[in-house]
C-alpha cells in the first residue's frame, strides 16, 4: 500500500480543530437565531413567569459563556445533555436515530454506484450515440425531480398500488430494513447516480482517448484488462471524490426522504430540533454529522491515495 | 342547590356509564397513525396536544368528559357534594378500582395526585385548580377538597387531563431528585387506571398499548371494556404518507387528514371519513397597542379599523377556499361547542360598504398598510392570508405577508413585535373560563398578546370565577362576549372539525370537542 501512516495520522489530527470550531460555531449560532426553546415549546399560552421559571430550570438564563463551559465539560464526560423538547438524553436520541440515517445513506450510495457504473461504461463506450443520449436524458429526469415529489411518486406506484413495498417505516431485522428502506434509498440514489454517471462517463471518455490506453491496447492486452485496470482505475478517481463530497448532500436529502417515508432517522430529528430550537439536540447532532462526514472524507482520501500513489505520499 | 345536583348525580351512577350499545366485537388490534409522537406522558408537566389528547387512554380522572365535551360523567369518583358555602366538596371514590399493574387505587393516591396537579410550581396547568386550598382523605372511599373561594368549575377541572390519578408509590419510586425528574422517568412507562396499559414506546416510531385487564368500566350491555386487545400509535408526519398507509391497509386509522383531501376520502368505499365537532377556532390575532414596536402609529389601535377588517372578509368564500367547505363561520370568539357561547348568527357578516365607511370614519379613506406574520411552509397560513389579502385590497387595506418559522413567530408575537398573525385555539376544559382568561383578560397574557384590555371584561371575568349560579354566569359570559366582539382584537375566521379517517371495519372511536382521542369503545369488526 502506498499510503504512509504519517498521512493517516495527519489527516486524523486535522479533524480535531475542525471539531472544536464546529462546537463553538454551532453553540453560538443556534443562540443567535430568533426565538428560544422554552417559549417555542410551551407555546403561545405560557405566561412570562412560566417561561422564566422553565428557563431557570434548564439553565438557559445563565450567561452564554457559562452555558458553553457546561457543554464542553459534559462533552469531555461523554455526555451531551438532555433534549429540551423530548426530555430524554441527547446521546440516547442520537444513538437511536442516527443508525437509520446511516443505513439509508449507505444503502442509497451503494444503489447509486450500482446504477451509475455500468451505465456510465455503456454510455462512454458508445459515446455520442443514441444509447448514450437515452441514458443521459433518463438520469437527467432523476436529477431534476425534487426528492420529496419523487418519493411520493414511488410510494404511490410501488407501495400503495402495486403493494411491492411497504408505505414507509423502518423494520426490525436487517432484511426487513432493506425491504423498508429500498424505496427511500432509491429516491435518494436516483439524483446522486445521475451526478456520478455523468461524471464517470466523461472521465471514461477522456481516459479512453489517453495515449497510455492506446499503448496498452497496442501491447495486445485484452479489452477487459484494458478497461478494468487502465481505464476504470484512472477514470474512477474523480468519481470517488465526488461520491465522498456528496455524502453530505445525501444526508441532507435524507432529511426530506425520512419525512416522506416515515423513517425515524436523525435527519428528521435535526429538522424538528431546529424548529423547536432544541439547542442540546442541534449541537449533538451537528457534532455527530460532523464526525460522520469527516470520517467519510478521510476514507475518500485514503481510497484516492490507494488508487493514485501521488496523493498519499 | 349544589347538594341537589350532587344527589341527582349520585343516582346517575347507578346507571351504567353511558356508552353506545353498538354490537361491538371484542378483541383485535388497532393501529392508529398520528402526525407527531407524544413528548411527555405526564398529566401535570406536559404542554402539548400530542400528549393531552391520548392521556385519557392510559389515565382516568375523577370525572370524565361526556362525548359532546360539554359536561361530565362519573369516573374514578361516583358522587360529589358541595357544602352550602360552596367551599367544601366531598367526593366519593369508586370502590375496587385497580391500576393496570393490579395494585389497588387508594384515596391517598387521589389526594397526592390532586395536590401535585394544583401545586403552582408544577407545570403550566395548575391554574385550573387555583381555587383548591387543601385535599384531605376523610374516609377510605372519600376525599374532601377545601377551596379558597367558591369555584363553579371545580368538577369540570376534575374531568380535565391534568387531574389524572397516578399511583403515588410507583411514581415516587421513580429515579430523580426533583418532582419533574421523577415525572420524566415515570412517564417513560406510565401506569394508570385507564382502559389501556402501556407496553412499550419507541420514540417517533410507535407506542404499544394492551388492554387493561383490571379496567373498571363495562358497556351498557355489561360487556367488559375496552373491546380492543391491543393498540399501537405510529408516527407518520407526512400527510400524504399517512393517507397512503391507511389506503394500503397498513394502519386502521389516520388523524389530521388535510381538508383538501376530505372529499376524496369520503368517496372511498373502504374508508370512514369522520369530522368531529371541535372547540377549534381559527382566527387572526391583531396587535391593538397604540404604537408598534418600531415606534410608528398603529392603525389597528382604532376599533373601527378592526371592525372594518372583519367586515371586509367574506368568511363563506374563505371557508370554501381554505377548508373546502368543511369549516363553519364563528358566532363568537369561542367555539359553538364551548358552554355559555353566545351570539346570533355569523360574526361580522361580509359587508364591503360598511368596511369602507368605517375606514373612512377612522381616517383611513385612502387605505392603510398592514403586515402579517405567516408560518413558513404552512399551507393554511398561506391560503388564509393570500385570500384575505385579495379581499382586503377591495377596501384599500394593503396586506403584506412575512414568512417566518415557528420559533421566530412565537418570539415576535410574545414580544409584541407584530401587527397580525394567523392563530388557532382549542379548549382544554369544558368551560369558557380558560378561553376568556387567555383571550379577554389582560392580566394573564395581555389578551392573547394583542394588548387589548377592558376593565369591565376583567371584572366580569373575576366575578364569574366564583359565581355559583349558572344563570348569572351565563349572563356574565354573554356580556364579556358582547364587549369583546364589539371591539374585536381578533378576526374570527372559522371553526373547524377534527378530521380523522378509519377503515370501515373500525367502529366506536370518539374524539370529543376538547380533542381527546377516546378508544375505550373502539372495536375492529370482521
Amount of helix of chain B: 25-40%
Q: Total strand count of chain A, please?
A: 0
How many alpha or pi helices of chain A? 12
Mean pLDDT of chain B: 92
Task: Name the average pLDDT of chain A.
Answer: 84
Biggest sheet overview of chain A: none
Quickly give the structural class of chain A: mainly alpha
* Topology pattern of chain A, helix = H, strand = E: HHHHHHHHHHHH
Molecular shape of chain A: globular
End-to-end span of chain A in angstroms?
Answer: 11 Å
Total beta strands of chain B? 22
Query: What value does the Rg of chain A take, in angstroms?
Result: 24 Å
* Count of helical regions of chain B: 17
Rough outline of chain B:
globular
Concise summary:
Chain A is mostly helical and 313 residues long. Chain A is built from twelve helices and no strands.
Write the layout of secondary structure elements.
The complex is a heterodimer of chains A (313) and B (526).
Chain A: H1 5-32, H2 37-42, H3 48-58, H4 64-76, H5 90-125, H6 130-144, H7 147-161, H8 174-208, H9 211-218, H10 223-260, H11 266-276, H12 279-307
Chain B: H1 2-14, E1 29-34, H2 49-55, E2 63-65, E3 72-74, E4 77-82, E5 88-93, H3 107-118, E6 132-139, E7 142-147, H4 154-157, H5 168-172, H6 179-186, E8 196-202, E9 206-211, E10 230-235, H7 239-247, E11 253-255, H8 262-266, E12 271-276, E13 281-286, H9 303-311, H10 315-323, H11 352-361, E14 368-375, H12 379-393, E15 397-404, H13 406-414, E16 420-425, H14 433-439, H15 442-449, H16 455-464, H17 470-486, E17 490-495, E18 498-503, E19 506-507, E20 510-511, E21 517-518, E22 523-524
Parallel strand pairs in B: 1-10, 1-11, 14-15
Antiparallel strand pairs in B: 2-3, 4-5, 5-7, 6-7, 8-9, 9-10, 11-18, 12-18, 13-16, 13-17, 19-22, 20-21
Helix pairs in contact in B: 9-11, 16-17
